[in-house]
């Protein structure tokens, strides 16, 4: 199955697509780039047109992928996050050059669709540098497809479910996407790079450009807003809300007395309303499970409670998540998503989170500190917080 269809959308649909704010914002991002991936809400008019003209059933879909491209696209076979049968794309505007599908060459004309089988090689030639807007390329599930081998998602749950994709790239080099600079590989990825490593922008994953695909999500290690940290204020030990702390505030450590805050950063996390033990979600630590606490503590799944011993199961899970067993201030780091005492926080929504790093002559080292009445947890190191997905305050 392959072919092209002219005059897909109505004039009003074309006008809608060309004048959407999301389309203009995405086009502005082309400066310095050759492609920008984004999505828009699908209107009933566009939904029914794609059903009638292309046979696409989008009855359960709320958005469709689009992209701006400038310059030629090399010959490639489309890849996607799911198995699919056909590629669907619509050129919204005219462009010089041609779209080459297999051995056939077609002019790039506004409001023209192409539908072809998965596995069919295609490219563009002679397109120049004038940007062109496409609906798609997508598969029959309205998922973006193309030359991509790395796919970026806002959360681990999205990466596993292939929902709410940020963007994708045809390169194994880790990109700066939506201001996130630290990424982890979801377990549904097919490439050989280790999944228990945090990757930074510029790192290169291993892949063969054919069957090795990576589904990536940002890593965040933090306290929820409202966490109280043991500090010294005007010579008095007191627990202070983390959102009130500043650079220079003295924080009590487990082995080294008081240390000044070198960095403090904040951000946000979208927490699912499920019980799934994901890394990038919030966990509730309650006084009933942690006697050192005076009130509930909420931390992200990769944040560590410091403990004296680990069970064999905890060791196995830590190696799976982290690649090795880490120690801070002569205590083991037990991340919340592995600690059976920590319960997934089931309040769905976006929450403000914070983390801090204390002064240290070795910028790769961290400390144990006391929160919410006395539970010993880890800080960030200066290096880690400097390179984190959080904003310094």
From TrEMBL:
<protein>
    <recommendedName>
        <fullName>Hedgehog/Intein (Hint) domain-containing protein</fullName>
    </recommendedName>
</protein>
<dbReference type="InterPro" id="IPR036844">
    <property type="entry name" value="Hint_dom_sf"/>
</dbReference>
